[in-house]
Every structure is written in structure tokens, then in C-alpha cells.
């Protein structure tokens, strides 16, 4: 069944059809929330909130874009609102929750593992420190692997604007990561 057919059934009172949409998009919504929050439990809670909001707003979905694009917008906006409201810094989880680091093997040098972990934490902090529109673009591009066209639809802007946002985000991340990487390596050389 297509998303449009399911939405029609839901709007006619078939609540069970919404479960199909949730199953279809739950991983996408979770990954998007996780990209902003970096905390599994918070991302799972927010993903549930996103689906509640989507269900409550479904009658306002006009079908001018794909349902997935509309759902991404809800997930991105909810994630941004959550990060704005949060007065506490999000504590970073252990390496198991890191989507960037590769798992260590027994052959890896312990110092390299430690440096890699520190760099992963710093990368997440650097992404969080980007301006909101750059952070949104880079998360949708790198975490969700969306095209610039899809990101433009979600952010309701042009593909050129997305390209520019991604360029600036990458440049900002390179600057921050380069200086932090040098600090981390310097700290470990002193030990």
C-alpha cells in the first residue's frame, strides 16, 4: 500500500493503518532525532513524539511533497526544539552509541583507541556547535544520506542554498576538528 492510500484510510478512521506508516518510517525518524540528540533514550522518546504529532496533524498534510519529506520536517523541527529547550548539555554516551567510531579490535593500540574516542566526542560537539541551518543540512546529508534535492525540500529552500550550507558546515567542521585533533594528540604525547 502506498503512503497516500494509508493516509486516506487513517483519515477515514482506520487507526491500524497508522501503525504501518510508523513501521515504515520509524528508523528514519529515530536516526534523524539521534543525529541531533546523540542520546539513544532521548532520540527514542522524541521519535515517539514525532509520530504522535504526525498523527495529530495528518489532516493538515496536503500531499504537496512526499509523506517522508513532511515527516522529516516534523522530526527536524522537533529535534531542533528539543536541543533549544534543553538547558543541560547532552552527555555523550559510550562508544557503543557512537555512530562515527569504528569498533576497536584486539590489534588496535590502546592509545589510538582513546584518541579515536576523544575525536568522536569532539566531532559530535563540533556538529552541535554549528549554526542551526548548517547542522540540519549536515545531519540530513551525512546521517540520513539524503540528496541535496531532498534536503532542500525538507528545509524548504533551494538546492543551491543547501550546497552552500553543506560547504560552510564542512569548512567549519574541518577548522574545529583540525585544531582539536592537534590538541588531543599533543595531550597524549605528554602522557
Q: Topology of this structure?
A:
Layout: H1 3-11, H2 16-37, H3 40-57, H4 67-85, H5 110-129, H6 132-143, H7 148-155, H8 159-190
Helix pairs in contact: 1-2, 2-3, 2-4, 2-6, 3-4, 4-7, 5-8, 6-8, 7-8
Structure description:
This protein has 191 residues and is mostly helical. It folds into 2 domains: 88 residues, RNA polymerase sigma factor, region 2, helix turn helix motif (Rna Polymerase Sigma Factor, Chain: A, Orthogonal Bundle); 100 residues, Arc Repressor Mutant, subunit A. The protein has 8 helices and no strands. The protein is elongated, with a radius of gyration of 19 Å.
Which regions have little confidence, pLDDT < 50, spanning 5+ residues? Answer: 87-104
Mean pLDDT: 82
Question: Any idea how many domains?
Answer: 2
Highest-level CATH class of the largest domain: Mainly Alpha
Strand content: under 5%
Q: Structural class given helices, strands, pairing? A: mainly alpha
Number of helices: 8
| Shape label | elongated
End-to-end separation in angstroms reads: 60 Å
Portion in helices: over 70%
Task: Indicate the CATH architecture of the largest domain.
Answer: Orthogonal Bundle
* Rg computed from alpha carbons, rounded to a whole number of angstroms: 19 Å
Oligomer: single chain
- Main sheet overview: none
Amino acid at each position: 500500500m502506498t503512503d497516500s492510500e494509508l493516509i486516506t484510510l487513517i483519515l477515514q478512521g482506520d487507526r491500524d493503518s497508522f501503525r504501518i506508516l510508523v513501521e515504515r518510517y520509524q528508523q528514519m525518524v529515530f536516526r534523524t532525532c539521534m543525529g541531533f540528540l546523540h542520546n539513544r533514550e532521548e532520540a527514542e522518546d522524541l521519535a515517539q513524539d514525532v509520530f504522535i504529532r504526525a498523527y495529530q496533524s495528518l489532516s493538515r498534510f496536503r500531499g504537496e511533497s512526499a509523506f517522508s519529506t513532511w515527516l522529516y520536517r516534523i522530526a527536524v523541527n522537533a529535534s531542533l526544539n528539543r536541543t533549544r529547550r534543553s538547558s543541560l548539555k547532552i552527555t555523550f554516551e559510550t562508544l557503543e552509541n557512537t555512530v562515527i567510531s569504528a569498533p576497536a579490535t584486539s590489534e588496535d593500540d590502546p592509545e589510538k583507541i582513546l584518541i579515536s574516542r576523544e575525536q568522536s566526542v569532539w566531532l559530535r560537539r563540533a556538529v552541535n556547535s554549528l549554526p542551526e541551518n548548517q547542522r540540519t543540512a549536515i545531519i540530513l546529508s551525512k546521517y540520513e544520506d539524503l540528496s541535496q534535492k531532498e534536503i532542500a525540500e525538507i528545509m524548504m529552500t533551494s538546492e543551491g542554498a543547501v550546497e552552500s550550507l553543506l560547504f560552510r558546515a564542512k569548512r567549519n567542521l574541518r577548522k574545529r576538528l583540525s585544531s582539536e585533533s592537534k590538541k588531543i594528540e599533543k595531550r597524549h604525547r605528554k602522557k
